[in-house]
Amino acid sequence: MAGLDFIDSLNPAQRRAVTAGLGQVLVLAGPGSGKTRVLTQRIAYLVQGLGVRPQNILAVTFTNKAAREMEARLVRLLQEDFKGIWLGTFHANCARILRRESQYTDFDNNFAIMDADDQLAVIRRAIKDLNLDEKSYRAVSVHTAISNAKNNLITAADFPTVSYRDAVIKRIYQRYQELLRASNAVDFDDLLLETVRILVDNPQVREKYARRFEHVLVDEFQDTNLVQYELLKLLGSHHGNIFVVGDEDQSIYRWRGADYRNVLRFEEDFKDSQKILLEQNYRSTQTVLDAARAVIDRNAFRTPKHLFSDRGKGERIVLYEAADDHAEAAYVVDTIRQYLESGRAGGGDFAVMYRTNAQSRLLEEAFLRAGLPYRLVGAQRFYGRREVKDMIAFLRLVHNPDDEISLLRVINVPPRGVGERTLVALQLAARQLNLTPGRLLLELGRQGDKSPYWGQFSGRSALVLADFGGMLTDWRSLHSTELSLPSLFDRIVHDTGYREFLDDGSEEGKQRWENVEELRKLAYDYAERGLAVFLENLALVSDQDTIPNDEASAPTLLTLHAAKGLEFSHVFIVGLDEGLLPHSRSKDDVEEMAEERRLFYVGLTRAKNRVTLVRCQQRSAFGAYETQEPSQFLEDLPDSLVLRQGLSSAGWSLSRQARPKTWFTGTGGRTGGSAPVIEQRYHPSDRVRHAVWGEGIVMDSRIQDDDETVDVFFESVGFKRLAASMAKLEIVAKK
DNA sequence: AAGGCCCTTCTTTTT
DNA sequence: GAAGGGCCTT
Questions:
Q1: Selected catalytic residue, list A40, A61, A63, A250
Q2: A520 is catalytic
């Protein structure tokens, strides 16, 4: 076979994976074991070795960056031969299917995608609409509940109402969906859920895609949630060639519905699947691997792996204790500076990782003070800015005038005299006329005082509304005829006077205007592909996507989450304090503590050569300084691998022991606090029988309000949330 | 209707 | 120690 030379450079396990036969394949790949390489070469093998046409391959990655990276590698292996492949994130691929098949949904194919901020705004409105108290129903917690439901395939109609609160949340959920649909919009979770729904409800659509995708490949499989898993099964249902790559130990998105037990589920669902372990690590020194293993071995329920490396022992891990968080940042920057000055390393060799975004501020300041460049990873930082969101809202409105969330955001930006009263009048009139506010605005803009709707408003209101509607009408018609995306952008800035509004002479104003110019530059890149693609990509950017691809010579600052999939010669992990890593919000939950541990593991295994761990005795929490205890994870590092530096380098264990051990111990079960009144009887993966619904599998279970709440997936009716005391579930088989 | 001041709340992680 | 919401004045 020609052109398959690349296979020769693989190790035996990698080669077995790349050339595996048809059917289902599960590749469990430790960090640095050549996961991406296996995935791309598998695709190359399918195309060149087996003659599969690229358009019959679906490859799903976790971030757009990973997709681009894979594309770049495919170019090297196949030149043009891979064109036509469906390659992208779950969300991007679903958006693509939804736009094509929008006749099967209750929205149009130019639907908007709501980001997290938008979603909260819609939820706040839903709560207001229902006359509920915003204090007792916090938008964030309602959003979590709705999102969790969606990730578990639960629609508003099916939302289980065990408690009164659930019943209220169900109503908010329903109202929230109404508001989204009225705006011709979907949220992140809908992209997946709606796609599943279309495929389930319409056999002909399912067949179309299932026949098309002869091969389905998934990266970062441990971070898929139930909807994504379902999607995978549906899309692979015709040919059954499903190839997934993952590592349970790197599952760090549980809070977003990800469930590493999908790995177990996969083996359960596909009894004939092949399992291949990749254990040779090509990235790290043995010291790094030994430390990482000491940390992760304390987690239960995992496939034991024996990572090995031929890169030699390498240097010991440095553990540095600083006096406070300023000294912590200064130590990191100073250490990097010394390396750079000695010429032993380039800036791009370093990464500084932390648990929370808030920790980046002091680091940034330290870099600035030292006059050293750095790059900060974090899309939210840019796209979350007011001025950027404003400009995007204008563009979204041009594309989809029904988008009421964007309309409300900018109808009075810059201030043009549309206040509370005018707004209410607009919404009221729109409802009476059975139009969306945006459509009514366009009508007023087009016809001015000739419009039959003019009389609905007081003179002043009509004037300002028609004025805004007029601009919107112009933008829409210009854009549909002659104006390119960048020109449209400029036109909006010009017509609204947005620059003058922002750039008020202050330093902050100048900064804000620069952000708008940054966005404009981005729009320029999309001149060819157009507004729709631009908006979609904006909605689906991830933090990782903002890492410049050029191996720039500056140290990278990023969260541990954003670090997944990356590697650096020298990794700093800061904030190894109890309550920060592991985070205090996780301390009551065994599963969450296990995930904190995996997060630390992910950070450690990013390092090729050196790891420096940093903590401090005092840290400003919110305004005031608080004394910190060392992270419990530090205890798990073998002394032989560690070099202690900084303050009280001999006294660490003392300060550790002084702390009363009321927190989680690592062996499971509860410690400290009040003992639970009842014992947990059901556990994930148990098989149970219900009098009415028959047999099912326990997905999750927890003690809540003196009862046990059990989530069960029944073969007959699907997902149900039950109160154990009421449901009388019989245990058929213990896991 | 806009702008300014005070209050609370917040901090996990993000497609 | 920031940012957003509520309430006040102009």
A1: A250
A2: no
